[in-house]
Amino acid sequence: MEQNHVKVLLIEDNPVQARLIQSLLAEASGPGIELETLDRLRTGLERVGRGGIDLVLLDLILPDGQGLETFLRFRAEAPDTPVVVLTGLDDLRIATKAVEGGAQDYLVKGQVSGAVLTRSIRYALQRAQARSGEWASPMFRLAQQQFLKAAQIMGLDDNLRQRLLFPQRSMVVSFPFRRDGYEHVETVFGYRVQHVLSMGPTKGGIRYHPEVDLGEVSALAMWMTWKCSLMHLPYGGAKGGVRIDPTWLSRQELQRLTRRFTSEIFTMIGPDKDIPAPDMGTDEQVMAWLMDTYSQQVGYGVPTVVTGKPVVLGGSLGRKEATGRGLVYMVEEAARHIGLGLPGSTAVVQGFGNVGSNAARFLTEDGVKLIAVSDASTGIYNSDGLSVDSLHAHLAQNRFLEGYPDGDAITNEELLELRCDILAPCALQNQITAENAARVDCRILAEGANGPTTLEADEILAEKGILILPDILANAGGVTVSYFEWVQGLQNLMWTLDEINDRLRAILSEAFQRTLARAERDNLDMRTAALIEGIDRVAQAKLKRGLFP
């Protein structure tokens, strides 16, 4: 594709529609678009196979293809060619499914102007280029699919839909840090992404993990936007990360890495701009180093530049366990809603890090029997119940759950399919998929992790009658108490733990009730209802602020 020339293939059997598309492109200004038209899916695929086509405008109703099958056949034979779907109002749901399956966009026949058509083509090409490059990430794809589904249902303005699909600011850095062997210098990649700047400062954690990339960080920033909006917090979403495995770093190396990364993103963060927090692979000590490095740069102490730091440096009581505690608050709300008595019920927790271990502890305090847990090494199952204190003691000595004596070893995959009342995936994304969702056997699925369930799995779980507590609702306790920490720092005032927990419960419970009310009123699943609640508030804020210039 030349910079100012685009070759578009229109696959449309209606000659009137074909001539309309041709005339719309002819009247529109911008880069030259050469249009070629065919009226059959088979001949269209043969033409794409010969090369030279930059984008396809695809009608879903053709003589040799009907509905979603048309797109799926095209996708299977030409997976790398960007597609914009043409649809009628009656087939809008099918067009949305096509976008969820990988189409770049959809256009409604009869509602398309030349400007809208050319913009859709341009955005689709840009989006395809991004997805095949730095934004190529299953997690980012999931975040976009969830957003597009909610946007279609709520009738979100097309300008806002296009605007919110990608983050507003992204920084990619590569930087060196010295290993303990003085002559050994590692070069690593780091990221900081701000999804929306309209709501106030941006907020989001920093993770250290060997699979971190721009797409993953962008997905997490997008989810953080909806999460903060759903909780009515005055933040836009952000996220950051470094592509490295922190488990093979010494404490000194971890400190040097953190300080160098902080200096690289220094211009992007600040207590009134962007406030980092701990995430996977980082903790309050990492936040202390980040705060100190930032403070050294400006010449005075700035505790409010981060949250999740040690209490002695202005951290908040209750922040470390806030995500796990908030998850259990949500489980309590859901249990009341479905009439599940927690004492004597059973729970399975995937992931025994900060979120999972605290969720397990608070669940057992509610009288729930913990029958299985897991970490990266193994899963542990005991139908008679597991002791959280015993599990922590084993981890303190052995670092991993592998070898724990008071239970049977199972795989993480087997753990997700155990029969239980409460299943809490608190590990990684994409754990419950179309392949295993039918075998999930719980009453409440409480997502402690970000993006653990795919859209296809959502539909299967809904058919099974499982109540899903989606991630942007279920794991919002962490960012909520981070907000409390930020406020306390700005006021130079410390709240008691009881005050913090009471405020946390009140905010989460109110968000749960709003989400549930929307789900029941509009006949939606809880995830879509939560997303619409969050997206709608962001959309209102953007419209109120207007567009500059």
Describe the structure.
It contains 19 helices and 19 strands. By secondary structure, the chain is an alpha/beta fold. The protein has three domains: 5-132, Rossmann fold, CATH 3.40.50.2300; 169-313, Leucine Dehydrogenase, chain A, domain 1 (Rossmann fold); 322-477, Rossmann fold (3-Layer(aba) Sandwich). Strand 13 (346-350), helix 12 (354-365) and strand 14 (369-374) form a beta-alpha-beta unit.
Strand and helix layout:
Elements: E1 5-11, H1 15-27, E2 32-38, H2 41-49, E3 55-59, E4 61-62, E5 65-66, H3 68-77, E6 83-87, H4 92-100, E7 105-108, H5 114-131, H6 138-154, H7 158-164, E8 169-178, E9 185-194, E10 202-209, H8 214-230, E11 236-243, H9 251-264, E12 274-278, H10 284-298, H11 322-338, E13 346-350, H12 354-365, E14 369-374, E15 379-381, H13 388-398, E16 408-410, H14 412-416, E17 422-425, E18 444-446, H15 455-463, E19 467-469, H16 471-474, H17 477-491, H18 497-522, H19 526-545
Parallel strand pairs: 1-2, 1-3, 3-6, 6-7, 10-11, 10-12, 13-14, 13-17, 17-18, 18-19
Antiparallel strand pairs: 4-5, 8-9, 9-11, 14-15, 15-16
Helix pairs in contact: 1-5, 4-6, 6-8, 6-19, 8-19, 9-10, 11-12, 11-17, 11-18, 17-18, 18-19
